[in-house]
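Hi L.,

You mentioned the student needs an example of a multi-chain input paired with its predicted structure. This one should do, with 877 residues in total across all chains.
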Amino acid sequence: MSLLEIQDMTMQFGGLVAVDNLSLSIEKGKILGLIGPNGAGKSTAFNCVAGVYTPTKGKILFDGEDVTSHKPWDLCKKGMGRTFQIVKPFAALTAMENVMVGAFATTDNRDKAAAKAADVMDMLGLGDKKDLKPGAMTIADRKCLEIAKALATNPKLLLLDEVMAGLRPTEVDEIIEIIRTLKAKGMTIFVIEHIMRAIMALSDEIVVIQFGKKICQGEPEAVACDEKVIKAYLGDDYAPA
Amino acid sequence: MTQNELKRNCLIGLALAAFALPLVVSSPTYLHILIMLFLFAYMTTSWNLVGGFAGVLPLGHSVFVGIGAYTSTVLWLQYGVSPWIGMIIGGLLSAAVGYLIGKPTLKMRGAYFALSTMAFVEGVRVMVENIDMLGPFKLNGPRGLNIPPLPAQEAGFWSFQFATKEPYYYIALTMLILVLALTYYISHSKFGYYLKSGGEEPEAAQALGVNVASCKVAANVLSAFLTSLAGTFLAQLTLFIYPKSVLTLDLSFELAFIALIGGRGSIAGPVIGALLLRPVSEFSRIYFSDTLPGLHLIILGVVLIVVMLYQPRGLTEPLLGLFDRITAGFIRKPQEDTV
Amino acid sequence: MDLVFFAQDCINGVLMGLIYGLVALGLTLIFGVLKVINFAHGSFIMVGMYVSYWAVTLTGLHPYLALGIIVPAMFLFGYWIQNLLIRPIFIAERDVREPITVIVVTTGMWYVLDNLALLVFGPDYRALSPNPLKGQMLNFGEIFISVPKLYGAAAAVATAGLLFWFLQKTRMGRAIRATSLDRDAASLMGINQWKIFNIAMGIGTAVAGVAGAVLTPFYNVYPTVGIPFDVKSFVIVVLGGLGSIWGALVGGVIIGLVESIGPIFMTSTWTEAIVYGLFLLVLFVKPSGLFGQKHDW
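Structure written out for the whole complex:
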């Protein structure tokens, strides 16, 4: 059964159609990758799913329930966790307190939230950075912190928005490892990524969009050879004749 | 003894010293200065719940001081209701106003919120100055309300009037300690975490399940309630209120300034800010108000600008750092002895 | 109600409203470029009025000729304030689009300037002298028009027009507009954004100086004279749309009319409350104002 289902979703800003009739679904326990050239509408689609925007048209079903115009905080409580492309740590709080904000989604008790936060941070290898302020952390750690905050909310579905952008290859490998671990634990993950190596390695299925429209969907190998996808990324000249 | 234990012991010591102070200080003038210091620390701490933790800049909190002062005074003068009860009623009224004004304005960005709170308090002041009777309640327009002092034997707890300054001193001190304890409790609770995260990065907080807008409104309601109690206290202390004394931008600004200089969002900030600034205000008012009018406000403004330029998070952090450094050597010694 | 009185009130309202627009013009310009609400704007008006007062008193010049002194003096004042006090915050809080610290610092400036004026000049209300425009009236049948207000309204329109031309047609004006649209992109095009900010603040302050010079012939000068203008300017720019030059004039005229026609129906202090109510209403209903661009407030 699919955990997330997007049906004919359209998002319009004034005259600009950022997402055009997009439909897709994610099975429980799978990783779906969403790729596309810059400005294709990936982040907009994400923000619609996460409740930041209400789509102009279409329906979003989460765990069988229509959540189309629900607010971000409601969706979080229902089990949707997300990260932001540009990391948004709470600068005045320590790393641990940052994660605790997420953990409070599952409990009102401070000690329980702290324990939950500590667990998540240990799992992600942030165990020794609990008392640091985000400003004192490396980019890679801050990206990791972003995942930790989302995980602390106990999500059923994790939305990852370019968590690997700007990282060194070894750091990318670490994050790939983390995502694989999460999948092994049964987490369903919806991921936007620019780093092809990463998305090819991770995804069970990939959806490619361009100008807000879905142009291709399939397993990583199939998508990589698709004519339309190559055109979209490299231009007409590179398309196999 | 660790740094934290030392700090805790210092705090307990300070509180005890504050309670014992009237045994040493008997001059009503100095007691009055201390009472006002506590009262401002109290009001600024209440302000800090929104202005500090929720990350907005309210510049109209005197409206709640005014509501508190007027409510209890009107009820006492016209119906003989004890100001203590008036205090609570005023607080509830302020909380309602805090909800009504906070609901639409707290959605706005910084400058717009600050502007609307300013406009609100100015609007309310202008209205009160124009109203002699609000329905059955006598507000007496710009002339304000006078609470006739009771003879010494009739004054007491029920009437919230005391012949000496000491009871006021203890009430103000107790109010301050209670509000600090409440702030401490909140800042370590879920609500506190939600407020702080929502104040810093609303979008990120929302994605983590925080309903930022309703948290801010809740903080505003609580802050309005607490600030309002100080209004009643102020009315009973001075026994005379008028629109330009309790419903002014000056008072609103002073609260914001004290918090900002002390360090918004920290628990100690408002107290440290009040400790640093109230004496400056009081003494320049006492000694220079004839020769150099407005001097204390110039000092306040200059200090504010300098602090914002060099320590935008306020003076509490550097001062606590200094405290740590001074006490660091003093703490290490016993440890070395035991080794 | 007598129609003549009504016409008289309308004319007064429009004239005074245009002058209010001029008072708010500097605020809206500074916001447009720096994205900062200058809470000390009323104090800048006050400084402008004192500069105008002293320029006229000491030199005996006609108040409008004294603009030759007022405008450069105020420009330098604003330029200097921006460079010394606000630029460091912009640098320190580069990531924050609209740092609260700037509001706080400008509020601090408001306090310092107002009370400094009190300290130096005392609380006295000062009337301009020599004042060649004092009490002059034009007379059309039963309708009287105050000459200093008429000149002031004309100066308001002229200043707004000049500012509009400057921003649209000159090289510097284009650089200012480019910076206001996207400061980073403008920087990449070789525009020194700090210099632009200084100049924009200078121009905004100079316009406040013009407003001060226009006000002094019929408005007394005293240390806290800026406060009513401060709050009024906020109302006007929010009404007209933050950052819009013509919006400021329209907003000013609306406020001017409310103030002049309102007293027919109620006591004049109530109209003041209405102005604040109007302000809150606009903030709640259409925060981008009548002519403003939509911001994500």
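You could point out the following to them. DSSP finds nine helices and ten strands in chain A. The mean pLDDT of chain A is 88.

Best wishes,
N.
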